[in-house]
Design goal:
Blueprint: E1 2-6, H1 24-37, E2 44-48, H2 57-67, E3 74-77, H3 84-90, E4 106-108, E5 114-117, E6 128-129, H4 132-144, E7 150-153, H5 164-167, E8 171-173, H6 175-183, E9 188-193, E10 200-204, E11 207-211, E12 218-219, E13 231-232, E14 237-244, E15 247-254
Parallel strand pairs: 1-2, 2-3, 5-7, 6-8, 7-9, 9-11
Antiparallel strand pairs: 1-14, 4-5, 10-11, 12-13, 14-15
Helix pairs in contact: 1-2, 2-3
The structure holds fe (ii) ion (2 copies).
Length: 271
């Protein structure tokens, strides 16, 4: 099973450039074409939050149009830039979005890898939280099928990344309790996150966690304690997660026109 993870697409009102600089809609169009052109084609797409920039209905309408050419199921999750009500209203045919009641968190059962999406959103704030209710839901779902290989997805990475301005708006509540739940459930193959706009891997409370880059702008890699909140136009990318009985393998797939491929044998172009 192949899972394409697209995160932090930040679609803006009337496709205006984000931060007066980033044409996020055009970047997402390229990501959609990239996924559709992959051979073999991914079986599903997961989008781990910050789908749009301000949570407005118009932004979700643009998002919907741009995602329409994707030929496989797409699973959406909110990030701190999203708004639950307008997200649900914009995608009424995505029935799983209604599962979580007050939260957008859900279980997807029909694939070889079970998907559990957790909602870390704190309305009106940039940081993430997991309250006892949301964590209890996760613990209950994991206890239902302890033998079933499972992916857990949440927007805010649960650990400090060392990028100070992002850590200040990280998962500020519930992270340790989440770590405890994960450490009790060995079927979790990986925790998938967004929010950081750059690729990061960690093993946290014994569970591998990966953070995917954005198909648009990346957060600058700056580990100075006083580093400014800044982005860079490093190459756009998505994660491609390959699940087989041998385990979960993740590739970073860059989006763009790059020279090659050339055959190693004689340097001629590969078919
Ligand atoms: Fe983001
Ligand atoms: Fe975010």
């Amino acid at each position: 099973m192949l899972i394409a993870q697209i995160t932090d697409t930040h679609i803006t009102r009337e496709r205006k450039p984000a931060y007066n600089r980033v044409d996020t809609a055009a970047f997402l169009e390229r990501a959609v074409a990239h996924v559709n052109a992959m051979e073999p084609r991914p079986d599903i797409v997961v989008m781990t939050g910050d789908l749009v920039d301000e949570g407005s209905a118009g932004e979700y309408a643009i998002l919907r149009d741009i995602l329409a050419p994707l030929s496989m199921p797409v699973y959406l999750m909110p990030g701190n830039h999203d708004e639950r009500g307008t997200l649900r209203a914009g995608f009424p045919d995505h029935a799983y979005l209604a599962q979580g009641g007050d939260w957008i968190q859900y279980a997807i059962e029909e694939h070889p890898l079970r998907l559990l999406a957790l909602d870390t959103v704190t309305p009106g704030r940039s940081h993430g939280e997991l309250c006892a209710g949301r964590l209890g839901w996760l613990a209950d779902r994991l206890a239902e099928q302890p033998e079933r290989p499972t992916l857990v997805m949440l927007h805010h990475p649960p650990f400090p990344t060392g990028i100070a301005h992002m850590d200040r708006i990280g998962l500020l509540q519930g992270a340790e309790a989440l770590g405890k739940v994960l450490s009790q459930h060995g079927q979790v193959q990986r925790v998938l996150c967004g929010h950081l706009h750059r690729p990061i891997q960690a093993v946290w409370h014994g569970t591998p966690v990966s953070v995917a880059p954005s198909p648009a702008h990346q957060v600058a890699m700056d580990l100075r304690p006083g580093g400014p909140s800044a982005f860079v136009m490093e190459p756009p990318a998505i994660h491609l997660h390959s699940w087989t009985p041998a385990g979960l393998v993740t590739h970073q797939s860059y989006i763009g026109d790059f020279d090659g491929p050339y055959l190693f044998r004689d340097g001629s172009p590969a078919a």
